[in-house]
Amino acid sequence: MSDEFYIGYEPTMPPALAPRMWVTASALITCAVLLACVFAAAQGSFSGGRFDYGREQSFEGRIVEHPYPALESTSGTGRAQWFWLVGPGKHGAADLVKGLDGRQVRVSGVLIERDGDHMIEVAPESVTTTSSQPSPISPFHTIGPVTVEGEIVDSKCHLGVMKPGEGPVHRDCAVRCLLGHIPPMLVFREGRHQRRVPLVATDGDAFSAELPSLTGRPVRVRGMLLERDAREFLATSARDIEVVGSGLGKRDELLERRQHPAVAVGISDD
């Protein structure tokens, strides 16, 4: 009778055992490779957002201070190009451009962009005026009432600083960015394309309602679509925003209750 017992430090494996082990090992390796390929193919690709971290540039244009800081630039293109402005980290740029509404300025910062939307992370103390007289800012024009379903995101992360910059996995970060006065945007599908519209209050000022219970989940927003210099804004209030369903899967809802026991899944009237 042949002895099939094998100890790993022996130089050879018993003849009857070696073929079976070779077949088993080959099958396991093949399954591992196939599973890796399947998981890689099923994994959704990251967004096309871009953040030029460490590559500071100079920009010139006119400051639009309200409802959210922006730079309207015509440098080198002959037509106006809009750059949202934010500060470093999870902070907006309101304090960096305060009192400069309508003024021509030069700023230094890092470019953030996604699908034609542009933003600059402004370097502190880099804003310098290049003209003493402000020019008037165009008023809002009303387009009409709309109801849109999408997701409320913090624009800085969504446009390219974080990947993914949306969804439940990014919710905690988004809440902190919005509390730091990063402009909130509603992201929604229009046919095969994704659109982003900044949220503003019903009076056209910055949207100041608390958003922790609404961020990172599907919502339905009713409001008035506004336009200023070919830029669209959605004027709404907290009472006109509702979560579609629970907005969370069972696993995400359990995590939500553990991480945010005091935050209700719905709309807060506070």
Break the fold down into its secondary structure elements and pairings.
Blueprint: H1 18-42, E1 50-64, E2 70-73, E3 81-86, E4 104-114, E5 117-122, E6 128-129, E7 141-154, H2 155-161, H3 171-179, E8 184-190, E9 193-200, E10 218-228, E11 231-235, E12 241-243, H4 250-259
Parallel strand pairs: 3-5, 9-11
Antiparallel strand pairs: 1-2, 1-4, 2-3, 4-5, 4-6, 7-8, 7-10, 8-9, 10-11, 10-12
Keywords:
OB fold (Dihydrolipoamide Acetyltransferase, E2P), single chain, 5-stranded mixed beta barrel, 5-stranded mixed barrel, alpha+beta, 12 strands, 4 helices, about 270 residues
Description:
The chain is an alpha+beta fold and 270 residues long. It folds into 2 domains: 50-129, Beta Barrel (OB fold (Dihydrolipoamide Acetyltransferase, E2P)), CATH 2.40.50.140; 141-259, OB fold (Dihydrolipoamide Acetyltransferase, E2P), CATH 2.40.50. It is built from 4 helices and 12 strands. The protein has helices at 18-42, 155-161, 171-179, 250-259, and strands at 50-64, 70-73, 81-86, 104-114, 117-122, 128-129, 141-154, 184-190, 193-200, 218-228, 231-235, 241-243. The strands form 2 sheets. Strands 1-2-3-5-4 form a 5-stranded mixed barrel. Strands 7-8-9-11-10 form a 5-stranded mixed β-barrel. The termini are far apart. Mean pLDDT is 83; it is low at 247-270.
